[in-house]
Amino acid sequence: MRDLLIALGAGLGAPLRYIIGREIQRIKPTVFPIATLAINILGSFVIGVLIHTKGDLRYLFGIGFAGAFTTWSTFAVEVHNLIHNKKSTTAISYLALTIILGVSAAAFGVQLVS
């Protein structure tokens, strides 16, 4: 049952990530990867809220949804592309913001439910 819940959550998270990312880029096209940053911060908050939850919600949303909604691989490629395109300041800013805001969002989520 856990595997099914994780798969269902992932089936919701991945398409939602794509739709939100596409809409953010459509509304505000920019060199800075704001869509991935926003998605990863939101996903960090979601997993922070649910990480200590017991039962089905943890598997459905904490592991399945948040795991598929957030995207380390896109983040890594975007940083690489920024560096490759000689936008080192943007790359460093993106790295710092992702780490600081992502960890802060997760911590806030944990604190919110503690």
Helix/strand layout:
Layout: H1 2-27, H2 34-50, H3 56-69, H4 72-84, H5 88-113
Helix pairs in contact: 1-2, 1-3, 2-3, 2-5, 4-5
- Poorly predicted runs are none
Which structural class is indicated by helix and strand composition? mainly alpha
Proportion in helices:
over 70%
Largest sheet: none
Tally of DSSP helical segments: 5
Termini separation comes to: 27 Å
Bin the strand percentage: under 5%
Shape: globular
* Assembly form of the protein: single chain
Q: Report the average pLDDT across residues.
A: 96
Radius of gyration in whole Å, from Cα?
15 Å
Task: Please count the beta strands (DSSP E, at least 2 residues each).
Answer: 0
Topology order in helix (H) and strand (E) letters: HHHHH
Describe the fold and architecture.
The two termini are 27 Å apart. The chain is an all-alpha fold and 114 residues long. It contains five helices and no strands. It has helices at residues 2-27, 34-50, 56-69, 72-84, 88-113.
Question: What features would you highlight for this structure?
Answer:
mainly alpha; 114 residues; 5 helices; single chain; globular
Question: How would you summarize what this structure contains?
Answer:
The chain has 114 residues and is mostly helical. The protein contains five helices and no strands.
